[in-house]
Amino acid sequence: QVQLVESGGGLVQAGGSLRLSCAASGRTFSSCSMGWFRQAPGKEREFVGTISWNGYSTYYTDSVKGRFTISRDNARNAVYLQMNSLKPEDTAVYYCAARYIPYHTILYVTTREEYDYWGQGTQVTVSS
Q1: Which stretches does DSSP call E strand in the chain?
Q2: ∠ at Cα 112 (85, 38), nearest 5°?
Q3: Torsion angle of alpha carbons 98, 103, 105, 107, nearest 10°?
Q4: In terms of Cα–Cα distance, which of 17, 47, 15, 13 is closest to 33?
Q5: If pLDDT is split at 50, 70 and 90, which confidence band does 26 have?
Q6: 44-57 pLDDT tens trace
Q7: What per-residue confidence (pLDDT) applies to 85?
Q8: pLDDT of 62 higher than 90
Q9: 3-state secondary structure of 30
Q10: φ, ψ dihedrals at 44, nearest 5°
């Protein structure tokens, strides 16, 4: 079992930055692919990016490439989403998600259905 708690959301002006954190509990964190998703009002939850269980590989959706960066600290059981050059269209509830990968057979997963554990979400609002 992995429990996830996001923090760091808030209101920011367009062009600004925010850093989201996700604190994880459970002994399997270092074997988890960690993802970030977001859901805007009236829209489906969408993939933002992911980081491999070892922290060496990341993958992002095109709309955030070059602006968002995911990192993790396995010693602290934490994953982070650094968001720069924020745009009003980045406004959403942001969710942290985990997928346990036994035996490290793959680096990460990218679809909503592949994640097993979810946080409660944190609101990010970007004003124009």
Answers
A1: 3-7, 10-13, 18-25, 32-39, 46-51, 58-60, 68-73, 78-83, 92-100, 117-118, 122-127
A2: 30
A3: 40
A4: 47
A5: confident
A6: 999 999 999 999 99
A7: 98
A8: yes
A9: helix
A10: -75, 155
